[in-house]
Specification:
- The chain has helices spanning 8-28, 44-59, 75-86, 106-112, 124-132, 140-151, 171-180, 195-199, 245-248, 263-282, and strands spanning 4-5, 34-40, 63-69, 93-96, 160-164, 184-188, 204-207, 225-228, 232-233, 239-240, 254-255.
- By secondary structure, the chain is an alpha/beta fold.
- The chain has two domains: 30-114, Rossmann fold, CATH 3.40.50.10860; 140-263, NAD(P)-binding Rossmann-like Domain (Rossmann fold), CATH 3.40.50.720.
- Strands 1-11-8-7-5-6 form a six-stranded parallel sheet. Strands 3-2-4 form a three-stranded parallel sheet, sandwiched between helices. Strands 9-10 form a two-stranded antiparallel ribbon.
- Helix 7 links the parallel strand 5 and strand 6 (184-188).
- The chain is globular, with a radius of gyration of 19 Å.
- 41% of the residues are buried.
- The protein binds guanine.
- Guanine binds next to strand 4 and helix 6.
- One of its GO terms (cellular component) is cytosol.
- NADP(+) binds at residues 165-167.
- It catalyses: (6R)-5,10-methylene-5,6,7,8-tetrahydrofolate + NADP(+) = (6R)-5,10-methenyltetrahydrofolate + NADPH; (6R)-5,10-methenyltetrahydrofolate + H2O = (6R)-10-formyltetrahydrofolate + H(+).
- One of its GO terms (biological process) is tetrahydrofolate interconversion.
């Protein structure tokens, strides 16, 4: 069996080209979409991601800025920063990079973001809209996976989608998006007993558990589509997915590599959400 290797870059390029055009149109109306990313602390990987987000937004013709805060920042100071961004008309999208230091209540911070600028789609109002099937900001990684499914014309309706991982960032919204498209959805997680029993039934398998190579050849259904959200770094700096790609690739019809799979889509959907925010604010 020869699998289609799904590179996020191929799908992302198409979307970024059309976003660039949309940004140009908005600029003619005097609106330059603006994205601010706030990062607290010194986590090296988070800093790299945040710079990539800023660069991608600038390359798409938007305004973008990273606000870097010291690890010792108080919760109140962070809430004040968000409050002023909420009131800044030149800013359409606000993203607070997670995780935050332990002394800051993450949920309180996410709930302080104006839902109309919540380009991560993490505010409970936007999560609620997703649950009831209303149009809203959709969390970027699951949204990117939906775009990849659509691009490769992989059927969703009536299919069994199994999601490993129940984070608010990926697993939970992923399941809801697939359910909204008439998949039968099973959530698995670190406490699931007999995991293989579920993964082997999956027509679409989304793995977002953050443990290198936990899914092997015996765990997947033949002919299925595999999306690997894993990003574990080895000591020598290599990136590994949650799926043992080399062993799985010959058994499935579609698979994302790590790196170069889903990663480029996450940032692209953030750009999409920021343009959408600028458009709705200006209406
Ligand atoms: N940390 C890891 N992924 C994400 C994401 O998609 N958004 C935010 N805000 N933080 C993250």
């Amino acid at each position: 069996m020869s699998a289609t290797i799904m590179y996020g870059k191929d799908v992302a390029e198409d979307i970024r080209n059309s976003l660039y055009q949309e940004v140009e149109e908005l600029k003619k109306e005097g609106i330059k979409p603006g994205l601010v990313v706030v990062i607290v602390g010194n986590d090296k990987a988070s800093k790299t991601y945040v710079r990539m987000k800023e660069k991608a937004a600038i390359n798409s013709g938007m305004f973008s800025k990273v606000i870097e805060k010291d690890e010792s920042l108080s919760e109140e100071e962070l809430l004040n920063t968000i409050h002023s961004l909420n009131n800044d008309n030149s800013i359409h999208g606000i993203l607070v990079q997670l995780p935050l230091p332990d002394h800051i209540d993450e949920q309180k911070v996410l709930e302080s973001i104006d839902p109309s600028k919540d380009v991560d789609g993490f505010h409970p109002i936007n999560i609620g809209r997703l649950m009831v099937g209303e149009e809203t900001f959709v969390p970027c990684t699951p949204y990117g996976i939906i775009k990849m499914l659509e691009h490769h014309k992989i059927p969703i309706e009536g299919k069994h989608a199994v999601i490993i991982g129940r984070s608010n960032i990926v697993g939970k919204p992923m399941g809801q998006l697939l359910l909204n498209r008439d998949a039968t959805v099973t959530y698995c997680h670190s406490k699931t007993a007999h995991l293989r029993q579920f993964t082997k039934q999956a027509d679409i398998l989304i793995v977002a558990i953050g443990k290198a190579h936990v899914i092997g050849a015996e765990d997947v259904k033949e002919g299925s589509a595999i999306f690997d959200v894993g990003n574990s770094f080895t000591e020598d700096g290599k990136v590994l997915g949650d799926v043992d790609y080399d062993r799985v690739v010959s058994r499935v019809n579609y698979i994302t590599p790590v790196p170069k799979g889903i990663g480029p889509m996450t940032i692209t959907m953030l750009l999409h959400n920021t343009v959408h925010a600028a458009k709705s604010i200006s209406k």
